[in-house]
Amino acid sequence: MSDAGRRTAIVTGGAGGIGRVLCARLAAEGWRVIAVDRDAGALAALPDGVERREVDISDEAAVAACFDVLGLDRLDLLVNNAGIAHPDVGGPLDRQSLDTFRAYIDSHLTGAFLMTRAALPALRAARGAIVNISSTRALMSEPNSEPYAAAKGGLVALTHALAISHGPEVRANAILPGWIVTDKHGDLRPEDHAQHPAGRAGTPEDVADAVFYLAKAGFVTGQTLVVDGGMRKKMIYVD
Predict the structure, then answer these.
(1) Known catalytic residue: 148?
(2) Burial of 235 (C-beta count, 10 Å sphere; 0-12/13-18/19+)
(3) pLDDT tens across 6-33, in order?
(4) Structural domains of the chain sorted by starting position, each given as residue range(s) with its CATH number in brackets
(5) Bond from prior residue into 168 cis (ω within 30 degrees of 0)
């Protein structure tokens, strides 16, 4: 099938974890998929059928150059998935540097802003959808996660602002994953799974399922979809 007859998706952070699985799923279902990532080695390992663009999405000029090269007339789906994936920055607030804070904000929030701004004309042309991958850390926290929580919370606010500013031509929603097991995790203990009301921790495929739903749910916009196996609804008591 020619590109003209296919739906087109861009996935940032497309070379690792959730992004890699999502790119493979989209390609398998016939989409034209463009994976954007700054990790050239991981991009090279993506399956055939996924286009690759090495880009630092926090760099305004780099994002503009990427879209100039792509020359998209229409874009059906933009998934803003990129960002530093370590909630615990390694110490309390008085030991967190401004550079660290800015790195988290840039990788998650600034990147999503720049990518969305560049993609808007093509999204409007396709009456497309934006899916921002936030986190349940936007709603609850553990200690020493201020930069991560601020960045992920910002994505939630950006999402509803985009939905109101750019509807009905463009829809925007956010997914808030909980504990998602990717390559960076070792084997989990049985109790790690059992604590979830769903009976297990999540997988990248679970997040991909949610992306596919939001990509086609034409009456859903400005929303946050929590994908955490029910953990946020579970009351916690000290024994």
Answers:
(1) yes
(2) exposed
(3) 999 999 999 999 999 999 999 999 999 9
(4) 8-233 (3.40.50.720)
(5) yes
